[in-house]
Amino acid sequence: MNLIEITPDESGNIDWPLLSTDKKSVVTVGSFDGMHRGHRAVVSTVAQLAKQQHAFSVVIMFDERPAFVHQYAAEHGGAQVPEDMVDEDRISGLSQRLRVMNEIGVDYVLLVHYTLEFADKSFRFFIGQLVGKLGMRTLVLGADAAMGAGRAGTVEAIDLLAQATGMFELVLVDDKGNGATRVPRTIEPRMPKNADDATDMRQSMNKAEFRSWSKKIQSREVRNWSSSNVRFLLSQAAIREANEILGAAHGVEGVVTHGEERGSTLGFPTANVDTPFDGYLPVDGVYAGWLVDLGPAESYDPKTGSVMITDEEHAAHTDDGAHNAAISQQYHGGSVKSRLAPESPFRWKAAISIGAKPTFSDQTGRNDRTLEAYALTDDWIDLYGHRVRVEFESFLRPQIKFDSKDELVAQLERDKKTVDELLK
């Protein structure tokens, strides 16, 4: 899979790469945050149609969520998001999304830096560029997609354009799953009281209760298979329901750093994941899940998870003479993919803690959120300086303050046993 990074100019225009002089393309567009089952359905359709049409499969993906960019602009007088600002509501980082696209078999991912100037272009202009520059003959979108200035490019408007010009075909994919639901306009994380309470609260409501709840939280309608719904579920510790929509275990990635090393003194050495986290951190609590060692951080591209190769090496392995100098990276998921595999020796069951360590916060004076994972293994594993992936399977219990270290150690032993039993 080839990755091409693109930054619009000050006017929002893009110098699109020439993929081929004669081979056409099947294209989709979006941020694909979380790469949930709806996203997978769209991207898989792109790959399948491209194979049938002997065309390139192309995903145009934004490296900042449009919603994040526009919200920041609205709150800061139209300013662009600073380069060093972290989108804490992003479900998955770029490398996580690229892995899925690589597995699906996408030929090209065009990574576009989403700017306000680019967003101000009309959908007609944008689609014209795709037809003229990328050779797009088929555009694949979700059933309720919208693009362009003011989101005027609805699927209805795009379909009319396709029929009027005859230059491309619009293919819609039913990516809604089992319909629609409602989520709060402002999501407030809620830590469950116990494991049984870590569920999708909406499922237990009757129609009257659901209407009352929706009105109280000033809700908005979203697809069941949507990033917004996944984000809400993770904020409520409804991990199983979120994973069902994602089609895989939700994960957060980062580099292991030295913490207070209090876990080692208690007999439970943990991997302390440094901030910022690459992915959406669920609500505070203790979880059952997995810890995966992705290797030394210095050998891993933190942005894309790709392996740098020269243009000459790329040209030697590219069909149809697409020797574009802008293509400087090729995504190789082999080593990372093998580490993530279920049978991988770099994967361990883990008790995962998110929170501010209430038992020791009075002593440390620290109340910032931390992410720690205790691997259930008898072997000593040195992960300092390594990039790791922490995957969540289920919520165990809330973060609580213990009266003594002995009580805490006893609970940690129970957590360890519960995790081992749950993940068998």
Automatic annotation (TrEMBL):
GO molecular function terms listed in the Swiss-Prot or TrEMBL record: ATP binding; FMN adenylyltransferase activity; riboflavin kinase activity
Catalytic activity annotation: riboflavin + ATP = FMN + ADP + H(+); FMN + ATP + H(+) = FAD + diphosphate
Compositional bias of kind Basic and acidic residues: 185-200
Biological processes, Gene Ontology terms: FAD biosynthetic process; FMN biosynthetic process; riboflavin biosynthetic process
Pfam families, sorted: FAD_syn (PF06574), Flavokinase (PF01687)
Listed pathway(s): Cofactor biosynthesis; FAD biosynthesis; FAD from FMN: step 1/1
Domain Riboflavin kinase positions: 245-424
The protein's name: Riboflavin kinase/FMN adenylyltransferase
Species: Bifidobacterium magnum
